[in-house]
Amino acid sequence: AGGDVGMNSDTARRLALATFTGAAKLAAQSSEDAATLRARVTSKGGTTERALASMEADKIKTAIGRAVAAAAERSRELGEELGGD
Predict the structure, then answer these.
(1) Residue 75 DSSP code
(2) Which of 34, 28, 27 is nearest to 64 (CA)?
(3) Confidence class of residue 84 from pLDDT cuts 50, 70 and 90?
(4) Sign of the CA dihedral running 69, 70, 75, 80
(5) Is the backbone of residue 32 left (phi > 0), alpha (psi -120 to 50) or beta?
């Protein structure tokens, strides 16, 4: 996606990794839930707010929920398959 907006692949990769690493560290070091932390770092009218609005319009929360449910279902299936031997 970074390449699609003009970044070279190395810069895009480093930015993506730094963003996710920073978010994970913040979440790991805080007792607050992810929604509260996200609200704290989301500036009104800023880039994060715009990105979040875009993801909300694309119903990413629903897609992630379906992915988690699919993985959980497969986990149960594998447990039954492996537990049955």
Answers:
(1) H
(2) 34
(3) low
(4) positive
(5) beta
The contacts of residue 81 (CB under 8 Å, 6+ apart) are none
Nearest one of 68, 34, 28 to 52, comparing CA atoms = 34
Q: What is the DSSP string of 10-27?
A: HHHHHHHHHHHHHHHHHH
Look up the pTM and report it.
Answer: 0.74
3-state SS track over 46-85: CHHHHHHHHHHHCCHHHHHHHHHHHHHHHHHHHHHHHHCC
The shares of helix, strand and coil residues in the chain, as percent rounded to the nearest 5, are 80, 0, 20
Q: Write out pLDDT tens, residues 34-78.
A: 999 999 989 999 999 999 999 999 999 999 999 999 999 999 999
Whether the CB-CB separation of 49 and 42 falls below 8 Å is answered with yes
